[in-house]
Amino acid sequence: MKPSFCLFIMPTSLFSLLLLCNLIAFSNSFSSSTQPRCNDDDRSYLLQFKEGFVIDNSIYGCDPSAPSKIESWKLFHGESSDCCSWDGVECDEETNHVISLDLSSSCIFGSIKSNSGLFHLLQLRRLNLAYNDFNFSQIPEQVGHLLRLTHLNLSSSRFSGEIPDEISNLSSLISLDLSDNNDLRLHKLSLRGLVQNLTHLKALHLSSVDILSRVPDLLANFSALQSLQLDQCELQGEFPTGIFQLPELKMLDISGNSDLKASLPDFQKGSPLKSMSLSEVKFRSQSFFDWKS
Ligand SMILES: *[C@@H]1O[C@H](CO)[C@@H](O)[C@H](O)[C@H]1NC(C)=O
Ligand SMILES: *[C@@H]1O[C@H](CO)[C@@H](O)[C@H](O)[C@H]1NC(C)=O
Ligand SMILES: *[C@@H]1O[C@H](CO)[C@@H](O)[C@H](O)[C@H]1NC(C)=O
Ligand SMILES: *[C@@H]1O[C@H](CO)[C@@H](O)[C@H](O)[C@H]1NC(C)=O
Ligand SMILES: *[C@@H]1O[C@H](CO)[C@@H](O)[C@H](O)[C@H]1NC(C)=O
């Protein structure tokens, strides 16, 4: 980071500043080659998380021509290494704690144990495990311990069973994607129970989760919502009309819910909606067709 800061000031600075910059850059590269930035505990939590899986190049979403990101996670000759430079890992600049894990399409096969090191990474803000194969296991409830999460993406990764209640506690979430898993259900908690405290959501993607309940009116109060994907969810009852008028909503997909009823509002010019999928939804009025023509 510092060297680029130097590049920025160089054009306006004197020769002495340039020298200073070189010194900073030098000491920076020197320290990073001798001392791993990575927090020691986080490094062992990551390695313990990795141990629970096998790498299988034949699973859906895996790119066999690219090495799995998680394969770069190792110690060199038993020495500690910098986990902040491992593929898919991002650390905080100041605390050196792991704050982001992107292991999407990493050819991971297996299930996440309830005592996995993952759930000790309490500074984690982004977690993406999409396009792996978690072998029809349940989403571990311990994911609800990661209270700093702003982004949680477990889409297309072969989770099944009930979505754990604990996800409803992740009130910092901006983006939640649990779509396109196998037989993932939201029967116990209901959609209302899941989202009532997730009021900062910008993206809520639950495509093909078996929800089997109403869309709660309170979603029409989620003023930050930009993308809502609830297609193939067995939704019931009446879709809250206010959702169509959310001030930031660009993308709405509620298609494939044949028991869902909806009526469209009068769309104002300047509505941010860019894409709407409504097939199979039952409409009360003709306004949709008025609007289209
Ligand atoms: C996948 O699930 C099956 C059935 O529960 C189990 O026998 C098998 O050991 C699991 N494989 C892995 C890698 O977890
Ligand atoms: C949510 O968090 C609160 C406070 O930390 C805790 O008491 C409660 O048990 C949690 N609920 C779930 C479903 O995890
Ligand atoms: C909702 O989130 C707030 C923090 O944003 C927290 O204090 C409160 O306990 C949460 N309520 C429930 C029911 O989880
Ligand atoms: C979840 O991750 C997948 C794979 O990286 C990506 O295609 C998808 O857009 C992500 N979902 C959200 C809501 O960002
Ligand atoms: C939505 O917000 C308004 C204004 O804050 C409030 O009066 C109303 O009860 C909320 N609706 C729901 C369903 O929570």
Automatic annotation (TrEMBL):
Annotated InterPro entries: Leu-rich_rpt, LRR_dom_sf, LRR_N_plant-typ, RLP23-like
Membrane topology type: Single-pass type I membrane protein
Subcellular location, record wording: Membrane
Keywords: Glycoprotein, Leucine-rich repeat, Membrane, Receptor, Repeat, Signal, Transmembrane, Transmembrane helix
Signal sequence, start to end: 1-29
Gene3D superfamilies for this protein: Ribonuclease Inhibitor
Claim: Metal-binding is one of the keywords in the record: no
Entry keyword annotation includes Ion transport: no
A Pfam family hit: LRR_1
Domain Leucine-rich repeat-containing N-terminal plant-type: 39-92
GO cellular component: membrane
Name of the protein in its database record: Leucine-rich repeat-containing N-terminal plant-type domain-containing protein
